[in-house]
């Protein structure tokens, strides 16, 4: 385990440290990079991560109690089972609060969060909950969204190129100007009172 003796860290890189099942409280990180670190089941309480990048980290089942994430990027990380609603989010969210690239974020909760312009690219996001979230202009490109929940979700201008497994009811979500690709886009028709026939 790495002991953080300072309250704030700027432009630092942390490699291979262990924080699994530990508690980190009231530490602020600005433009820091975490590589191959194990945060699994750690409790991050009232911490701040601004402009930080997490690479190949295990963050499964972390607790993000009252912690802030702004322009935080996750690359090739395991971030399963995280309740992101427990974090401290601004009332007026900026763009790109969170970015996930080639991550596993299954069984995570984003209910009601304002995260416009975020990215979930080439991820495994099975059984994630995006209900009532504001995700305008968010990219889900290449992501497996099997069994994930969308309801009263703002998805205007969102990008679902190469995404698979999604079940989005157009009458219960805002999808104007969102981008979809065939054949997956045909799933948008399943909730309509129509018959789909094959030639």
From TrEMBL:
InterPro entries: 5peptide_repeat, PA_immunity-related. Coiled coil: none annotated. SUPFAM superfamilies: Pentapeptide repeat-like. It comes from the Bacteria. This is Pentapeptide repeat-containing protein. It comes from Cohnella ginsengisoli. The lineage of its organism: Bacteria, Bacillati, Bacillota, Bacilli, Bacillales.
């Amino acid at each position: 385990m790495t002991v953080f003796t300072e309250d704030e860290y700027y432009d630092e890189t942390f490699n291979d440290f262990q924080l699994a099942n530990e508690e980190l409280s009231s530490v602020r990180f600005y433009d820091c990079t975490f590589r191959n670190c194990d945060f699994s089941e750690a409790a991050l309480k009232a911490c701040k991560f601004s402009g930080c990048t997490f690479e190949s980290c295990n963050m499964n089942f972390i607790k993000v109690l009252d912690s802030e994430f702004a322009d935080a990027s996750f690359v090739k990380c395991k971030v399963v089972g995280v309740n992101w609603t427990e974090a401290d989010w601004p009332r007026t969210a900026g763009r790109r609060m969170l970015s996930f690239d080639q991550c596993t974020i299954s069984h995570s909760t984003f209910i009601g969060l304002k995260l416009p312009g975020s990215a979930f690219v080439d991820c495994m996001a099975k059984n994630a909950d995006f209900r009532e979230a504001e995700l305008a202009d968010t990219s889900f490109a290449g992501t497996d969204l099997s069994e994930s929940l969308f309801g009263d979700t703002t998805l205007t201008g969102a990008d679902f190129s190469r995404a698979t497994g999604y079940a989005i009811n157009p009458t219960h979500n805002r999808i104007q100007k969102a981008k979809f690709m065939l054949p997956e886009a045909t799933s948008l028709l399943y909730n309509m009172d129509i018959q789909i026939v094959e030639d």
